[in-house]
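# nightly structure sweep
# worker-07 picked up a monomer target from the shared queue
# config: single-sequence mode, recycle default, output format = structure tokens
# input follows
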Amino acid sequence: MKTQFNFSKNNASILFNAEKGAIGLLRENARIDGMKFSLALDNKRLNPLLKATVASSDKNSYIFKAHLSTVEITMELFYDTLSDFFGCKFIIKNTTAKLQCLGDIIFQANIKNLKLGGHRRENYSILFNNCDGCAQSGTIPLNATETLVPFYLKPFASGKCSSSLFTMIYNKTNQAHLFLGFKHPFCAPHRFEINPSAIIAHLSCNCELPPKAEKRTDILLFRLGQEPFETLQKYRMFFPVRSPSAVTTGWNTWDYYCTNINPSRVEENMRAIKKIAWLKKRINYIIVDDGWQHSFGNWEPNIRFKNGAAAIAKIIKKSGFIPGIWLAPYTIHHTAPVMQDHPQWLVKGNSGQPKMYGCSALLDPTHPRVKSYIYDMYRTLYKQGFRYFKVDFVQDLKQGEIFFNGVNPHRAQQTAIHNIRRAVGADAYILSCGAIDGMIGAVNGCRVTLDIRSHWEWIQRNTHSLAVRWWMHHWLWENDPDFLIVRGQKTSTDLYPNRFWCTPHLPDQYGIWGKRMTISEAQFWATTVLMSGGALILGDRIKTLTQKGLGMLKTVFENHNSQAAVPIDLFKKDYPELWLRKGKSASLLGILNWTSKRKHYRVDLAELGFKTNINTVHELWQNRRMGARKNIFECLVNPHGASLFKIIGE
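# output follows
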């Protein structure tokens, strides 16, 4: 009996050893041996692929079958010619007359069997993508320790991290890498775990399998390669593309005012914007964020907005802007009338009681009455004139366990956002703030960072998250890097730039306390937002900005377009410093100094892919022309600072 099956495509080979139930993958000078699958059945962990037999095959796939006493397992290994990925999927069929309890399928790749160019594992790093947009993502060395990483990566020290959608382990010396990703991440709570010894993929199948019924899993994709940027770009081909559009621009109440907002503060900032001719031309939306409503779950205007939501929408529209509004539609405080009046509308826990976290509960988006309630709420706001909808905390639905129609939390998220889309129509802009996996194909924009604060620590962590999600921009959605803020030392006349966050009982992780950002740090963040190519939503109190602060904003607006820059040294350094946006006649190069010391850089344009006919290199923050001898120039970048170069020519 043949126990090993091999097929090769595009300089890559995949091998399945049925006797050992293990998969191997080989490509160029990278390889991994002995990747194994196991299945949880009635709380027992089994390896059903041992001694599997070939059911069928063609030039791009093999289908294997294994028979246990209670289930039949079908596994297809295939090669996708368009994306150059290998993949696998499973069908589990209950062959008995009894109910079977199906658990996760676990795919485990031991790192000791992973050879990425033969270099030491000290050179290996992990790229991880958190399950929520507003949660930390980034890169971290496989052998990191708490003393060697910034505070925001300490939970992931020693290489222990989880990832959703995709993950990658790579060699910083030669960029050889192993990529793992799910094709339909919004179907179920799939996830990856990575530790110093193994990469573990969980294909979530948790369900009760009735007699003679079958369960089909998502597709797990994997690829070995030498060009990680190419791998990310090929991976996104599995998702529906969102056509590029004009950059979304606006001003939002949240970052400066928090919940302490009223119509007069909105009007003050609109007047300030209109007094600045170049800014007035570029701002489209005015967004009223948290603080306009009575409470979570009671989405009626509070006393500060006593004339109602329609009135503030009318004021914004009359001022020449497009009204926007924030809601967290499925999160309700325990005092909200809807919770008291309709407890049957709530997401349940396994106990059958409403799922509570703190003082809040969640509306079940799959309940017919909730669908109508949310639809009517958003339809009313649309009719009142709002065209921008910031939808927050939908990711909290993942905490639910029992939904009305029996779907998993990921499917519930999809139901939630598609119901809102149906209510506001195709012409409205929907921003997902928090939820990420289930939003693909349903939203215009997605927050891909945490909330920003005017402190260096938050600038640093948000830039790190943005670096690993640059490829999502204008494919899955328009990336939203959070607010473009510049207020700080010498850029604002306000002595307390976060004064409405100054509540002493809150812990430091809320970003209230900390040294005000310097001009260099403001330039670092402004460069990051500019190079993201994403939405430009201002968060400062406009009238308090100095000429230096306004000058920074003007530089960003004048040089921004919808193209995302590539952090070209992302897979060579854990904190990417060189961000490049290439254009036909002009390109932008951002250099970010993450360190606390002034740093010297030598830039060779030829190494960045430029030809010899460069006409001009202009540093935009300092507004000075650089001398480039043989397409090489040098610069000094301030601590926690940035240089921004406009390169004319090819």
